[in-house]
Design brief:
The complex is a heterodimer. Chain A is mainly beta. Helices cover 8% and strands 31% of the residues of chain A. In chain A, strands 8-7-16-11-12 form a five-stranded mixed beta sheet. In chain A, strands 9, 10, 13, 14 and 15 form a five-stranded antiparallel beta sheet that branches. The longest helix of chain A is centred in the N-terminal third of the chain and has 8 residues. By secondary structure, chain B is mainly α. The N terminus of chain B is likely disordered. In chain B, helix 2 crosses helix 5 and helix 4 crosses helix 5. Classes of the chains: A mainly beta, B mainly alpha. Strand 6 of chain A pairs antiparallel with strand 1 of chain B, so a sheet runs across the interface.
Chain lengths: 404, 109
């Protein structure tokens, strides 16, 4: 890989091919979307179009970071593969030969193994789970005060059917784990351009890794994983943020550390252990893990007009995070109305539709939103819980509707 | 398929029912180039030479406005944590550019 790494010389050589600069907005004038990010910049291009993707918000071209426009969530509770958000930390191979790919299983296992894709697929029962895949930083761009990092709106999420084998069955192909095993680490083919930079490695505690529904998946909505989503294999951890859903899986390593010292576990993707204020330093943090409940109005967008004196149906999607959804309420300023939930036939980790019919629109709806609660009692907060990395946003999202 | 033989009969049936088998084909993708170039400004050459290998111009231009000290911290993090081969003497020029384009962006709004 060393010839692929960057040196100062290649960095400078790369600069030579850059064309003369033109005004930025003029370059992007084609198709833009306004994400409503407080203080801006808020306009994002819907171009370039990526292979296998429909209309997506382009946050970064290389390596790709693509957000799903909220309008896509009107279409249904399963997010099609061509609309699922895309997020890579490091560059990845753009061509993969199926029969050459191997998954190394090592560390605190009985006998290290190097598995072909067919061997992974034969490791156990084939299992499907429908689950929300959501970036830990989803909604970061809406933070106030703003924080640096990927400036997502709320579209760094999607819900798909994932099919594969259980991680525990793949570990069994290496003879099982040692009694002192504490965590299972995952790494993919995405690697840094620079020597010595940390690889994107994530790990799950043993009890999570052994769970019935934690998978090494090869299919997304009954199709092979697209390269942008981690072909040929990715980890699926229902209820946990997608930072753990390692793509292009190439290495499984069982370790005996209670706390994983690797960069993406120890130094980043961490959340304050107790609430903090902007400017606070040196506070204790914990790794970001489980998702809290969230809900969104999808039938209307902020600023839409509704018919005065007429009935109004509001609809949207909700999910319970790491536990099944319990209820969704429409909340205004000082009032709330329970919403109807669609049957939970896709399981506890999927998007679920909600709707509510209001008999008559009597005036504007100022700051109306929805509030989800899961069966563990976790409920979306009224006020935004700020944190310096903008993780795990789940404040009630409110819009204003004008009656006329 | 040997691993399946140890499963109870019921689970085996469920597995056969839901698992018609899977075959893996090769995959490839051609990724598009970034259509955006960095606007002119003081320090643009240093940013092109040190930053654009990993950061698309579009991403750099989409960041929220933060103070000069924050950009200095980010540049240092790129060197120390992510081992970016950046000449430290260029940091003030890189920071000049980020502050400049953010002020330009704000003026344009």
């Amino acid at each position: 890989m060393s010839e692929g790494k960057l040196t100062r010389r290649t960095l400078i050589a790369g600069a030579g091919v850059t064309a003369l600069a033109a005004p930025v907005l003029a370059q992007q004038a084609g198709r833009l979307i306004d994400l409503g990010l407080p203080g801006g910049p808020s306009l994002r291009p819907l171009e370039p179009v990526f292979p296998g993707k429909g209309e997506m918000i382009v946050h970064r071209v290389r390596p790709p970071v693509l957000e799903t426009p909220m309008s896509a969530f009107r279409e249904g509770v399963i997010t099609p593969n061509d609309r699922m958000f895309v997020r890579w930390n490091w560059p990845f191979p753009t061509e993969i030969k199926a029969n050459e790919h191997r998954v190394a299983v090592g560390g605190a296992v009985k006998r290290a193994a190097s598995l072909t894709l067919d061997e992974v697929a034969a490791a156990g029962e084939h299992v499907s789970v429908v689950a929300v895949n959501q970036c830990a930083g989803n909604g970061r761009g809406l933070s106030q005060p703003r924080v640096t990092g990927g400036q997502w709106g709320n579209g760094a999420m999607g819900c798909a059917k994932w099919t594969g084998v259980r991680v525990r069955d793949v570990l069994a192909k290496a003879g099982g784990t040692a009694p002192w095993a504490k965590r299972v680490r995952f790494a993919g083919l995405d690697v840094p351009l620079t020597d010595g930079a940390p690889q994107f490695i994530k790990s799950l505690p043993m009890d999570m890794a052994m769970r019935d529904d934690v998978l090494v998946a090869w299919a997304m909505n009954d199709e092979p994983l697209p390269i942008l989503h981690g072909f040929p294999l990715r980890i699926v951890v229902p209820g946990w943020f997608s930072t753990y859903w390692v793509k292009m899986l190439a290495t499984i390593e069982v370790i005996d550390d209670e706390e994983d010292p690797s960069h993406y576990m120890a130094d980043t993707y961490r959340f304050p252990a107790a609430p903090v204020q902007p400017g606070d330093k040196g506070f204790p943090t914990v790794p970001i893990t489980t998702m809290p409940p969230r809900s969104f109005i999808t039938s209307h967008a902020d600023g839409d007009t509704v018919a005065l004196g007429k009935p109004l149906v509001l609809e949207g999607i909700a999910f319970g995070g790491d536990a099944a959804l319990d209820r969704v309420d429409l909340v205004g300023m000082g009032w709330e109305i329970p919403c109807t939930l669609a049957p939970d036939d896709l399981g506890p980790y999927a998007f679920r539709r909600w709707w509510v019919e209001l008999p008559q629109v009597a005036g504007d709806f100022e700051q109306v939103g929805v509030r989800a609660r899961n069966v563990n009692g976790a409920v979306q907060p009224e006020t935004f819980v700020w944190n310096p990395s903008g993780y795990a946003r789940n404040v009630i999202e409110r819009i204003t509707l004008r009656a006329q | 398929m040997r691993a399946l033989a140890i499963l109870p009969a019921l689970a085996l049936l469920a597995a056969c029912d839901s698992a018609p088998g899977v075959s893996f084909a090769d995959a490839s993708i051609t990724l598009p180039d970034d259509p955006v170039d960095l606007p002119e400004g003081p320090g643009r050459e240093e940013v092109l030479a040190n930053c654009t290998a990993c950061h698309s111009p579009s991403t750099m231009l989409q960041q929220p406005k933060v103070p000069r000290e924050k950009w200095e911290g980010i540049a240092k993090k790129m060197i120390e944590t992510y081992k970016a081969p950046v000449d430290e003497t260029t940091i003030p020029r890189i920071v000049d550019y980020m502050v400049f384009v953010q002020e330009q962006g704000e003026a344009a709004q």
